[in-house]
Amino acid sequence: MIKTEITEMFGVKYPIICGAMMWLCKPPLCAAISNAGAIGDITADKPFMVSVTILPSVRITAEHYKMYLRVCAEEQVAGVEISGAPIDKACGMEYIEMLKKAGVKMFHKVGSVRHAIHAERVGYDGIYAAGIEEGGHPLNDDVSTMVLTPRIVEELNLPVVTVGGISNGRTMAAAMMLGAQGVMMATRFMATRECNVHDNIKNKLISSQENDTTLICKSIGLQARALKNKNVSAVLDVEAKGGGLEAIIPLITGARIAEAWETGDVDMAPMMVGQSVGLIHNTITCKEVVEGMMKEAEEQIAVVSGKF
Ligand SMILES: Cc1cc2nc3c(=O)[nH]c(=O)nc-3n(C[C@H](O)[C@H](O)[C@H](O)COP(=O)(O)O)c2cc1C
Fold first, then answer.
1. For 19, phi and psi rounded to 5 degrees?
2. How remote is the CA of residue 186 from the centroid of ligand 1, in Å?
3. φ/ψ (deg, to 5) at 302
4. Are 10 and 40 contacting, i.e. CB atoms less than 8 angstroms apart?
5. What pairing do the DSSP bridges indicate for beta strands 40-41 and 213-216?
6. pLDDT interval class at 43 (50, 70, 90)
7. Which segments of the chain does DSSP mark as H helices, in order?
8. Distances, alpha carbon 165 to alpha carbons 136, 172, 194, in Å
């Protein structure tokens, strides 16, 4: 049994955490992951995380973020996964103090050592080290998971969780060797029975390889990794022609993505998945994902240990 600072901090069986997924981290998926012994993202009767993505938005204001964090504190959720701007900058130091007082563990998702150092300095409890392989919005420093995790471990005194490129026991074992106390995955949890996304999308993930994703929106400072499809080609065309935010936004709206997940149209929206997609070969239950992964990680660690 692998015990780490993460299993101890949250009182869970496995150091595996589900990453934020806009529209997809709904209660059934969250509950399935938490009930499997890992940490789901939103609601269950076992510890779970709430994710708050603080990126530039036309709809969501600082007041919304403050409200989300107040509710997290009031409800004493196990932890919050913050990405984008840190809590102190987006809402003020008093929100960090409020969450601390309520016992809510604060983790920031970062792509660089400098952002991790800031999070430690203002009082976060842990770091999600997200390399360029990750789905969603990897930082435009473009540092790989392989280097980012040990660099942050080297510089900080907080538990570090590896994000990006993780989807099975081998990759989890590798993250532990890099000094991680746990792993976070999102794409792997999309291809599960409990994830509420159309079967066409799950089948697309299973048939995709590690080189089927690409980076988009670098030119507008909102870098994202997505599966190559007609929509992504259109976005890259606009960028190549020097089109700005206004020309790109209609192609990447949240509404478009929600519709794609529901209808199963694999070409209408950016599907922001990670390179880990190349390692996903089936749609199984969250319990099978988590337990299979732990078994494989322990086996791989034993194999390596036996060699020395
Ligand atoms: C479909 C999808 C939607 C995502 N949406 C968000 C989001 O809203 N906020 C966020 O911080 N990260 C988001 N991410 C990034 C994940 O939380 C996580 O950092 C990343 O996907 C990890 O890499 P992996 O998918 O290879 O495991 C999303 C990822 C996926 C696959």
1. -80, 160
2. 5
3. -65, -40
4. no
5. unpaired
6. low
7. 5-10, 27-35, 62-74, 87-90, 93-102, 113-122, 145-155, 169-177, 187-190, 199-207, 230-240, 245-248, 254-263, 286-306
8. 12, 9, 21
- Ligand 1 centroid to 284 CA: how many Å? 19
pLDDT of 258 > 70? The answer is yes
63 Cβ neighbours under 8 A, 6+ residues apart: none
Task: Please write the tens of the pLDDT for every residue from 12-27.
Answer: 999 999 999 988 999 9
- Ligand 1: which of 18, 25, 134 to mutate, judged by most atoms within 8 Å of the beta carbon? 134
The CA–CA distances, whole Å, from 217 to 48, 291, 301 equal 31, 36, 38
176 C-alpha vs ligand 1 centroid, how far in Å? 21
274 lines ligand 1 (CB under 6 A): yes
Which residue segments constitute the domains of the chain, with CATH numbers given?
5-196+281-303 (3.20.20.70), 199-275 (no CATH)
Task: Please say whether the beta carbons of 183 and 161 come within 8 A.
Answer: yes
Q: Is the CB of residue 138 below 6 angstroms from any atom belonging to ligand 1?
A: no
pLDDT tens readout for residues 81-123: 999 999 999 999 999 999 999 999 999 999 999 999 999 999 9
**For 267-306, how does the pLDDT look when each residue is reduced to its tens digit (9 = 90+)?**
999 999 999 999 999 999 999 999 999 999 999 999 999 9
Q: How far does Cα 132 stand from its chain's mean position?
A: 12
Instruction: Report yes or no on whether pTM surpasses 0.85.
Output: yes
Amino acid at 172: M
pLDDT at 54: 85
Q: Which residue has the higher pLDDT, 190 or 41?
A: 190
